[in-house]
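Q: I have 783 residues here and want to know how they pack in 3D. Can you give me a structure?
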Amino acid sequence: MRILALPLLAAALAAPAHAYTPITLDQAMSHPDWIGPPVEAAWWSWDGKQIFYKQKRPGSPLRDTYQAGAKPRLIGDAELANQDIGTVIYNRDRSRAILLRNGDLFERDMKTGVLTQISRNTTAAAAPQYAADGRSVQFRVGHDWFSWNRAERLVSPLALPRAEKNPAAAPDEDYLRSMQLRLISTLKRQKDERDALRERGEAERQADATRAPAPIYLGEKLKIDASALSPDGRWLVLAVSPKGSENGRVGKMPRYVTESGYEEFDDQRTRVGRNIPQAQTLKLVELSTRKVSDVTLDKLPGIDSDPLVALREAQKLPAQKGQRAVRLDDEGDSMAWTGNGSQVAVMLRAVDNKDRWIAGIDLSNASAKPLHRVSDMAWVNSSYSEFGWLPDNSTLWFLSEESGYSHLYTLGADGKQRALTSGSWEATRVQWNADGSLAYVMCNRKTPGDYEVCAAPAKGGDVREVTQLGGGVERFALSPDQHKLLVHYSSSYMPAQLATVSTNGGAVVKLTDTRTEAFKAREWVQPQFVAVPSTHGAAPIWAKLYRPAKLEAGKKYPVVMFVHGAGYLQNVSKRYPNYFREQMFHNMLVERGYIVLDMDYRASQGYGRDWRTAIYRQMGHPELDDYVDGAKWLAANHQGDLDKVGIYGGSYGGFMTFMALMREPGLFKAGAALRPVTDWTTYNHEYTANILNTPELDPEAYKKSSPIEYAENLRGHLLISHGMVDDNVFYQDSVRIAQRLIELKKDHWELASYPLERHAFVQPESWYDQYRRIYQLFERTLK
C-alpha cells in the first residue's frame, strides 16, 4: 500500500504546470458562488415587454430580483409590490389574470396593467381559479373555499367543509340520557328550546343571501386531504382518509454538535412498510343542498383484483378483501374541473403502486367513470402525471407511459383517444396555448439526454422542435401574447441561463450569462457522450466519458466510475449537472492520469418504462451489470486498466458502490460510498415500496437488494462517508454496516462522519474533507 506523504499530497492537490489553470480540489469543493449563481425563477412581465428573474446574492443566502437586459437591473424592494410571478391564471378571453404571491391573491387587468389585491391573510390562499361566468375569483384557505366578486369587492365563503361531528346531529343512543329527558321535564324543555332556536337560525341563514353558508360536517372520524370546487360553484369534491390512523414507530435522530451544548434528538420518518399510506375515499358535495355522497369506484377496471396475490400466498398473509386501497396520485394536482364546471376528472393511484386511473365523476349519481388506466406489474411512474381539460370543456389531455415512454394524449367527448406524440423518447412539462390548439412539451428526440422544446398540434400531425439550444433546455414559459418562449437552458459547464425564442422557431436571443469571469476563463475536460453496448440485452447505456484528449500509446489508465444518486435521475444530459462539483473532481482526476465514466444505469430517468422498471425486486443487480459492461468497454476502447477500477457515488450511488465492491469484488478494487443505503428495510415507504414492495410481503426482494447481506464478500478498499444528521438516509445505515464489517473482521475500510451535515452536504469544509479522502483512496489503491 502506498500512502502519500503530506508534502506530496499538497503537491498533488495543487495545480501542475499547464497552459491553462487546472482545477484544484479546494476550489472544486468551495462554495459555488465562485462559479456564478444560476438564474433561478424567471417570468414575463404582464405585458410581455420585460423579463424578470431571481438570483442568489453572492456570499449570502438571500435572493434578489433582476430585470433582464444588456445590463441587468436590480429591482428595489419598493418595486416588488407590483411584480408578477412565474405562473398566472388567465380568464377565458385573457383580459384578466390571477397571480398568487407570498400567499396573497391578486388580479391583473391585462389591458391597463392595474393590479388589485384580493386577499391579505396570515394563512396562505391556494388553488385560485376563475368562476365559470368570469365575474369572480375562487380560491381556498385550508379547505375553506371563498369567492371574490370583482364588482362588489367582496370576499364570501362558498364551501366550509369540516372534519367534525355536526352539532345539530342527534347524539348517540344512551340509556341514562334518555332516562333523564323522560323524567326531568325542565331538561326536556331546555333541550326543545335550543333545538327550536337552532332550526330557526338555520332557516334564516338559508333565506338570507347576505349570510355565509353553514359548514358541511363530515364527522369526527375523517380528515380532509384535498378539495376541488367546481367553477360554477355548485359542487365540491373532497378526498378524505381516516383520522388518527397508526403511522408506525418513528425514528430518533441524535444531534451531538448543537448550539445548546447538549445532545438533542429529532423525530424522523418511519421505515418502509411501517407507514403504508392510508386509503382515501372521495366525497361529492352538492353545495345548494349540502348533500354529501360517497363516490363509488367499483367501475374502475382492476379495482377488485389483487396483483400481489402470489406474494401474499407465499408469505401466508391474508388475502385482499374488497376493493384495493387508492389515493389521489398527487393531492395538489389530482382533481381537475372543466372551466364551466360541467365535468371533473380525478387521478387515482393504487396504494400497491400497480395501477393509476383517470376517472370522471358522474355528478348525478356520484360514481366514478373510467377514462384512462395505466397498469404495471412493477410500478406505475408517478413522475408523468400531468392532466387537465382543454378550453372546449370536453377534451381531456394527459401524459401516459402506456406505450413504454411518456407521451401526450387527448380523450375527446366521443371517447376516442389520440396520441399527439409518439416514439422512443419522452414528452414532459406540458403547456398549452390559449385556445388549446397546440401543446408545447419538453422532448428528448435526438438522444435521451438532449432536451429541447417541441410543439404538438392538438389535432395530431408532425411534432416540431421549437428550440435549438444544444439540448440543454431545462424549462420554459409562454409569453402573454403566445408568440415567444422564455427558456431556461444550460450546458455542461454553464449553470442555467435565460433566452427567448419565437414559438415559430428561429433565432435565439440569449439574455444572461451569470458565470464569473474566473470560471469562464477556465478550460475544461468536455465530457464525451457515449453509448456503451449492453451484454445483458438492454439498450445501450448512455454515459459521460472524461479522458485526456489524446491517450498515450501503450499506457493503461486507472478507471474511476461515478454513480449518480436518486436511482431514478438522469445525469447524462446536455444540461448543467446536479453533480457539478463531481464534474470538476473528474477534471482533476483526468489531470492526474485517470479516465472517468459517469453512467445512466438502468432505472435512470429519460429512457422509458422498461429501463426504469428493470430493477423491480432486484435493486443493484441490473445497474451493476451496466457498470461491469462500462468497465470492460473502457478497457476495450479507451485503454482502461481492468486491474485498477474504482467506483464512488452518494445516496443511491453509495448503495451501488457497496453492491459493486461486495458483488463484483474481483473487478472493483476501491470504492467510496457516500451517505449510502445499506439495508432497504430502513428507507422510506414512498420510494422503496414502489420497487421492492414491503419487507413483510416481499422479504426476498429486500434480502437480494440490500448490501448488508453481501458484506462478507468485501475484499477491496472501502471508504464510507455519512452526515450524522442525515434525515433522508439515516446515519444508522452506515453505523450498522460498520458493525457488520467489524464482526466479519474486514480490513481496508474506514468510516468518515460529519456531525453537522445532512443528506446533501452544505459546508465547503465538509465537501473538501470528503473528496480529499476519496482522492487519497484512489491514489493509494489504483495507482
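Q: Anything worth noting?
A: The two ends are 10 Å apart (CA to CA). DSSP finds 14 helices and 45 strands in the chain.
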